[in-house]
Write a structure and sequence with these properties.
The protein has six helices and six strands, in the order E-H-E-H-E-H-E-H-H-E-H-E. With about 170 residues, it is an alpha/beta fold. It has a single domain, classed as P-loop containing nucleotide triphosphate hydrolases (Rossmann fold, 3-Layer(aba) Sandwich), CATH 3.40.50. Helix 2 links the parallel strand 2 and strand 3. Helix 3 packs parallel to helix 5.
Amino acid sequence: MIHVYTGNGKGKTTAALGLAIRAAGAGLKVYIAQFAKGRNYCELRSLKKFPNIRCEQFGTACFIRKKPGKKDIALAKDGIKKLEKILKSDTYRLVIMDEANIALHLGLITLSQLKQLCKVALKNKEIVITGRYAAPEIIRLADLVSEVKEIKHYYRRGIKARRGIEF
């Protein structure tokens, strides 16, 4: 099954992490690939407490605000290679591609690469793809699509990202 969590609201990665914890609680092995992220977010420390969850980042420490650089693209390419191996193996039952939609939107990965990852996955896998701007082709490919819609957000009042809540 392919799940997509998209939209402009807050909570897409949080939903995916919640599913990862639920799966881990059921004894399933979980692999999380974070695209366009390279900072030491608090969730990484939390996830280390679960022996059956592995998380790897394929991004630089700074948020991409302009055109991605060569290092951003190289890291995303590494992530694609790693995911292809993971999805073809029996090791992990749940595979989360965090911010893969953003990586596609920014040109770090291609639509054909993302679709190919979904195609090569063994049939017993649950795949989660998160991030704003989910491509229509990915939405059509998915079995479940949840759109997180922003109705109100405290950022609009000038409140900055807070440790433990946003990162």
